[in-house]
UniProtKB/TrEMBL annotation:
It comes from the Bacteria. PANTHER family: IMPACT FAMILY MEMBER YIGZ (PTHR16301:SF20), IMPACT-RELATED (PTHR16301). This is YigZ family protein. Residues 140-194 form the UPF0029 domain.
């Protein structure tokens, strides 16, 4: 698995105008290919009279799924430059749809490539990107007496507390970089006098 990846910070739209043609780039995070396809369908529905709704998406931290469509523009002049912009910026789990309203002036193949790729690049700059880092999920189980202090110490140390469940004991779910696991295990034993249980879970990605 990749140690980290970048994706768009939020869903949004950025518009540019080139030779009287309007280019609206809609960007969104997408966890799965189905989410990406649903977003493309939604944008197409919002712009039924547009000349073209071209798209590109990259799914997977390792960019395993990559798709692009020119939607009627000359082959290779829209979807591919959009996809190239996403991969050049190391973007993952992201979908881009560029909606074009033709303004009466032909741009030529080179102009289209620059327009579609540029629309995605400008939208990424406008909406911003975030880095997600790989970490291990882990659970700490501790008695009620020590739980409050452990939670405070975790937050003070900048650890991500993902969930807290109260039962006979208190179960705290956290995220840890792989490199920190051994040191954390020792720290936990110190602050709880060895009374806490520590269990490693699977892997996930979170904000870096």
């Amino acid at each position: 698995m990749q140690d980290e990846y970048r994706t768009v910070a939020r869903e949004g739209v950025h518009e540019t105008e080139i030779n009287r043609s309007r280019f609206l780039c809609a960007l969104a995070p997408a966890a799965t290919e189905r989410e990406a396809q649903d977003f493309v369908a939604r944008v197409r529905k919002e712009h039924p009279t547009a000349s073209h709704n071209c798209f590109a998406y990259v799914i997977g931290a390792d960019a395993a799924v990559q798709k692009a469509s020119d939607d009627g523009e000359p082959g290779g002049t829209a979807g591919v430059p959009m996809l190239q912009m996403l991969t050049r910026r190391d973007m993952r789990y992201v979908v881009a749809v560029v909606t074009r309203y033709y303004g009466g002036v032909k741009l030529g193949a080179g102009g289209l490539i620059r327009a579609y790729g540029g629309a995605v690049g400008e939208a990424l700059d406008a909406l911003g990107t975030v880095t997600r880092r790989r970490f291990r999920l882990a659970t700490v189980t501790v008695d009620h007496q020590r739980a409050g202090r452990v939670q405070n110490d975790l937050r003070t140390a900048g650890r991500e507390v993902r969930d807290v469940r109260y039962g006979d004991a208190v179960t705290i779910e956290i995220g840890l970089p792989d490199a920190d696991v051994d040191a954390f295990r020792g720290w936990l034993a110190d602050v709880t006098a060895g009374a806490a249980e520590f269990e490693l879970g699977g892997e996930a990605y979170g904000d870096a």
